[in-house]
From TrEMBL:
<keyword id="KW-0067">ATP-binding</keyword>
<dbReference type="GO" id="GO:0005524">
    <property type="term" value="F:ATP binding"/>
</dbReference>
<dbReference type="InterPro" id="IPR017871">
    <property type="entry name" value="ABC_transporter-like_CS"/>
</dbReference>
<comment type="function">
    <text>Part of the ABC transporter complex HmuTUV involved in hemin import. Responsible for energy coupling to the transport system.</text>
</comment>
<dbReference type="InterPro" id="IPR027417">
    <property type="entry name" value="P-loop_NTPase"/>
</dbReference>
<dbReference type="InterPro" id="IPR003593">
    <property type="entry name" value="AAA+_ATPase"/>
</dbReference>
<dbReference type="InterPro" id="IPR003439">
    <property type="entry name" value="ABC_transporter-like_ATP-bd"/>
</dbReference>
<protein>
    <submittedName>
        <fullName>ABC transporter ATP-binding protein</fullName>
    </submittedName>
</protein>
<keyword id="KW-1278">Translocase</keyword>
<keyword id="KW-0813">Transport</keyword>
<dbReference type="Pfam" id="PF00005">
    <property type="entry name" value="ABC_tran"/>
</dbReference>
<comment type="similarity">
    <text>Belongs to the ABC transporter superfamily.</text>
</comment>
<dbReference type="GO" id="GO:0016887">
    <property type="term" value="F:ATP hydrolysis activity"/>
</dbReference>
<feature type="domain" description="ABC transporter">
    <location>
        <begin position="5"/>
        <end position="240"/>
    </location>
</feature>
<keyword id="KW-0547">Nucleotide-binding</keyword>
Length: 256
């Protein structure tokens, strides 16, 4: 199943304060969208609203379906969410954590997965380079290793929409590139991937589109070269950046 995501006039209030106001976005299935913006701009709140985890006003629809009208289980089959920080408190083997991604599809026991579930788990562990620690307790993994296991759980879900909150935050450079490439590859297979990141360079290099949030409002949206143009970077982030190309791809380095 693939479908476009339509967000119309989305507003979120938390603690009595507006944190998102009048955000409207049309995001196409099969695209990789980076959401960027300064601290507190509302990026996590946007993902949480799409995932159905915070109350909101406005419409969020996947294809013809209003997501608010779906049961939690039906929503979980459509949207896989990687939260920021992805803390894990139970010493489960990494493979079992990844298998949790199959629970919206009816799996109930990581030791007794059906063939499709086992294949989805194996493929997710392959693309996230987590097979080497499949049998180790997630509580004993490094922050970056655990982050990749959490991402594997999201991949294993096979949902038409992936929401990833800072998926590369804890990763070394090679795994940052690998994870962004894996998210892009997933988008190429029809998934809508929406990833929050503070790394404007990775966003410029890997995303098809960038949505820039500023103080709860959409400041810009479009291809990286448009949304991350110098005037927007100056206005929203207060920075100057080196912008160029390398091997035909955009290069953006925050500079001063
Ligand atoms: N539970 C809450 N109660 C009250 N205010 C909240 C709550 N959660 C977030 N906020 C506020 O909402 C605003 C947006 O927060 P959000 O986490 O969406 O920002 P963000 O863009 O993801 O920030 P960061 O880059 O720092 O992760 C912030 O001003 C934050 O203080």
């Amino acid at each position: 199943m693939t479908a476009d995501l339509r967000i119309r006039d989305l507003s979120v209030r938390l603690g009595g304060r507006p944190v998102l106001s009048g955000v409207s976005l049309e995001l196409r299935s099969g695209s990789f969208v980076a959401v960027v913006g300064p601290n507190g701009a509302g990026k996590t709140s946007l993902l949480r609203a799409i995932a159905g985890l915070v109350p909101h006003a406005g419409l969020i629809a996947l294809g013809a379906e209003n997501l608010d009208r779906l049961s939690a289980r039906a929503r979980a089959r459509r949207i896989a969410y990687l939260p920021q920080g992805h803390e894990m408190h139970w010493p489960l083997p990494a493979r079992d954590v990844v298998a949790l991604g199959r629970f919206p599809h009816g799996a109930a026991d990581p030791d007794r997965l059906g063939e499709a579930d086992r294949e989805a788990v194996a493929e997710a562990m392959r693309v996230t380079d987590t097979e080497a620690f499949a049998d180790r307790a997630v509580t004993e993994l490094s922050g970056g290793e655990r982050a990749r296991v959490a991402l594997a759980r999201v991949f294993a879900a096979g949902a038409p929409v992936i929401l990833a909150d800072e998926p590369t935050a804890a990763l070394d450079p090679r795994h940052q590139i690998d994870v962004m490439s894996a998210l892009r590859a997933r988008a190429r297979c029809g998934t809508l991937v929406i990833a929050v990141t503070h790394d404007l360079g990775l966003a410029a290099r890997h995303a098809d589109a960038v949505a820039v949030l500023e103080a709860g409002r959409l400041a810009a949206v479009g291809p990286p070269a448009e949304a991350l143009a110098p005037d927007c970077l100056r206005r929203v982030f207060g920075i100057e950046a080196f912008i160029g190309t390398h091997q035909g791809a955009p290069v953006l380095v925050p500079w001063s």
